[in-house]
Amino acid sequence: MDIALFSPSSLFADGDSDSADEDTAETCESFVERTHQFPGMELLIREFSFHQLNANLLWPGTFAFAEWLIEHPSWIEGRRCIELGSGTGALAIFLRKALHLDITTSDYNDQEIEDNIAHNCKANGITPILPHIKHSWGDPFPIPQPDWDLVIASDILLYVKQYPNLIKSLSFLLKSYKPKANEVGTVTKKEQNDETMEGLPRPAFLMSWRRRIGKQDEWLFFSGCENAGLEVKHLGSRVYCIKLRQTAMRKPVEVDN
Fold first, then answer.
1. pLDDT value of position 55
2. What's in the keyword line of the UniProt record (predicted)?
3. 3-state class percentages of the chain: helix first, strand second, coil last, to nearest 5
4. Buried-exposed string 37-66: b where 16+ CB fall within 10 A, e elsewhere
5. In the predicted structure, residue 75 carries a pLDDT above the cut 50
6. Rg, C-alpha atoms of the chain
């Protein structure tokens, strides 16, 4: 995994982040705690002052995605969800509190990240803490038969060299999805194949992307998904749905910026 030698916050204009300007009194050498404004609530999130895997700060996509999901709750209500690249766990914590979403966090195989997500769960009244999966993209997934019908992520396209590994893990989660026994027969063919205003196909990957990179680099990820047998659709507000391709021959999907 490439190591980031900069702070993510330096990549965005001041207006892109909804986090509070003032830090709480509890600040130490390794961490800082900040209050962040999410739709309808404030969350107290402990962030690494620096983390070599870039799991330190909240990124703009987190806040934009939270707002979009609150405006489109039918897309995710009742889903079993796993978040890729959870970082601090803030988005997952928000979705559990705001929508009571059944959500599992995941990030690079790093104990500090897992411990910090657990800390933030407790600090915001999430008990028991959210389940967490340690997984480095591209490695064998620790659960051989995943039953999450929704994968989400925000601002995870930082490392271009990691796109093949990310697509490998994402493809596994979508192609190996097995519904729980009590869910078999409850998912219609329409739900499996089509996005509607009532929800998403099962399974599906829902991603918000606010990171500013070159269009060519961004397209490497989307074209990589297409080459892996996945279909990309822009839903608006830089939110994308990626699902299994349903037909062998299909025209490439134009991805808006």
1. 55
2. Methyltransferase, Transferase
3. 30, 25, 45
4. ebeeeebbbbbbeebebbbbbbbbbbbbbb
5. yes
6. 18
Helix (H), strand (E) counts: the chain:
6, 10
Q: Summarize pLDDT for 181-233 with one digit per residue, the tens.
A: 665 444 444 444 444 445 689 999 999 988 667 788 889 999 999 999 999 99
Which tokens hold the place of 18?
């909804």
Residue with tokens 């396209």: 157
Q: Which residues neighbour 85 within 8 Å (Cβ) at sequence distance 6 or greater?
A: 106, 107, 153, 154, 155, 156
Element (H, E) at 20: strand 19-27
Closest CA to 31 of 8, 49, 43, 45: 49
Per-residue pLDDT averaged across 115-128, rounded?
97
How far is the C-alpha of 103 from the C-alpha of 95, rounded, in Å?
A: 8
Check the CA dihedral 93-98-99-100 and report its sign: positive
Question: How far is 62 from 38, CA to CA, in rounded Å?
Answer: 9
Residue 24 corresponds to which tokens in the numbers above?
Answer: 């709480």
Specify the pTM: 0.80
Share above pLDDT 70 across residues of the chain, in percent, rounded to a whole number: 73
H-helix or E-strand spanning residue 95: helix 90-99
- Which of 17-31, 51-65, 75-89, 210-224 has the highest average model confidence (pLDDT)? 75-89
Cα(23)–Cα(43) distance, rounded to whole angstroms? 12
If you ran DSSP here, which 8-state letter would residue 212 be given?
A: -
Pairing of strands 132-134, 102-107: parallel
Question: In a 3-state reduction of DSSP, which class is residue 129?
Answer: coil
CA atoms of 23 and 64, how far apart (whole Å) = 22
